[in-house]
Amino acid sequence: MKKLKSLDRRMITILLIVFVQMVGAAMIMPILPLYAQRRFAMEPQVITLLITAFFVAQALAGPYLGRLSDKVGRVPVLIVSQIGTAVSFFMIAFAPSVAILFVARILDGITGGNIIVAQAYITDITPREKRTQSLGLIFAVFGLGFIVGPALGGILSALFGPTVPFIGAGVAAILTVLLTWRTLDETLTPEQRLKNREARDSSLSPRHIVKNSSLMLILGIVFVGQFGMGLLQATFALFGEAVLFRGYDPQMVDLGIGLLLSVVGLSQFLTQLILLPRAVVRVSDATIVVIGLISRTLGMLIFALAAAPLVGAVAAVFFAMGMGLMMPPLQSLATRTVSDELRGGVLGVYQSTISVAVIVSTAVAGTLFALDATFPYWLASGLGLVALIPAVLLYRRMGKVKGVESFTAVSD
User: Fold this and answer.
1) Residue of 6, 20, 14, 7 whose CA lies nearest to 183
2) Dihedrals φ, ψ of 29, to 5°?
3) Helix ranges, 243-342 (H)
4) What count of other Cβ atoms lies within 10 Å of the Cβ of residue 101?
5) Whether the Cβ atoms of residue 395 and residue 99 lie closer than 8 Å to each other
6) How many CB atoms lie within 10 A of CB 201?
7) Half-sphere exposure of 315 (CA within 13 A, CB side)
8) I need a labelling partner for 211 at 20 to 30 A (CA). Which of 6, 30, 220, 280 fits?
9) Cα separations in angstroms, 198 against 77, 116, 194, 203
10) Per-residue pLDDT of the chain (412 residues; tens, 9 = 90+)
11) Half-sphere exposure in the Cβ direction for 149 (13 Å, CA)
């Protein structure tokens, strides 16, 4: 409670906005694949392409939204992206065809810069040495959203039908628009925005990114790790129905998958609340990344072996702990590799790297799942081991220094 009272008012506001947004987004996670399968008789190979479509759009739009927020301000971009998300959820709820489902997912991807901009907003108001902890709060809120959202989505679907969670998610997105418009102050002054618009020579071009070896290591870890994440994300609901809850009626499947995702959210929240704050004062960010990757890989391996809901819950705990530990320090390190006027841009590049990894993985996930329901999980655990290679290189480069690590910013 003491920590919450000491938070910047703007921090509390942005965290509330992210929470409402994540509750809405998490509500549809256990429902969308099964909704597409049951209502439109879509095959697994096509269902997973719904996720691919979202991430293709996000990968293309992410860097531009990040840089746009550097130039015109965080709040306007945040509002527009939230409106796009709300419209997309309503389109899914009332979609008359598969084509409209894909249009809705693409729209959500194009305008899906709300989390990127929220993260940029937090880096604006947080000193460098405290960014890992602050970004950790974002992931704690993600966890809270995933505690409430999937369970709520599963309950609403079971009680009132599969379209209700999408309508509820759209309403939640509208609430975030109102919260942003009425309560959030702009962090970038007119002078800063002008400076960012004129900083053409220091823009994040592909050449600058490739020359920034520290950033390349971070992006390598993110890409390989998120490829495995995409395999899980695309097939989890289908995996739950085919393996963990085989033989259960559809309503219980929806509820069970929602509750398992809530276990992920609760574990991630507790990780941010208890483990990460203690870790950042004892070891370097690079060390935390390695520990998180190991935990996440173990979770994926247990998923591959899971044959019952209880085993799936154990896997969810290890997976969520790993995600909660590794992602905030990776993002914090990424923002330290560039000059301050490019913070939004580098977070856009970071998010696009995630998107590209998930695009490729979700595009093949349905085919892999059709071959064997557990195959995506075996592959995901193997890729987690591969991601340890750049993570260890990052650790060796950073040494055992606690606190702020030194990175070379992008230069002209």
Assistant:
1) 14
2) -60, -45
3) 250-270, 276-280, 285-305, 309-335
4) 24
5) no
6) 9
7) 24
8) 280
9) 19, 22, 6, 10
10) 444 455 567 788 788 777 877 777 777 766 788 888 888 888 877 887 887 888 788 777 776 777 777 788 888 888 888 898 889 889 988 999 999 999 998 998 887 666 777 777 887 887 776 777 777 787 778 777 777 777 788 788 878 888 888 898 888 888 888 888 888 778 777 777 777 666 554 456 677 777 777 788 889 898 888 888 888 877 888 888 888 888 788 778 878 887 887 788 788 888 878 888 888 888 888 889 999 999 999 999 999 888 788 888 999 899 989 988 888 888 878 877 777 667 667 777 887 788 788 888 888 888 898 888 889 999 989 988 988 988 888 788 765 544 444 333 333 3
11) 29
Residue 74 · residue 186 · CB < 8 Å: yes
Separation of alpha carbons 69 and 74, rounded Å: 5
Q: How far apart (Å, rounded) are the C-alpha atoms in residues 271 and 321?
A: 6
Q: Which two tokens stand for residue 176?
A: 């975030």
How far is Cα 51 from Cα 48, in angstroms, rounded to an integer?
5
Q: For the chain, which domains are there?
A: 10-184+204-398 (1.20.1250.20)
Q: How far apart are CA 412 and CA 95, in angstroms?
A: 48
| C-alpha of 274 from chain center | 20
Q: What is the largest CA-CA distance in the chain?
A: 62
Distances (CA, A) of 180 to 6, 82, 117, 136, 325: 21, 9, 12, 21, 28
Dist CA 165 CA 337 (whole Å): 40
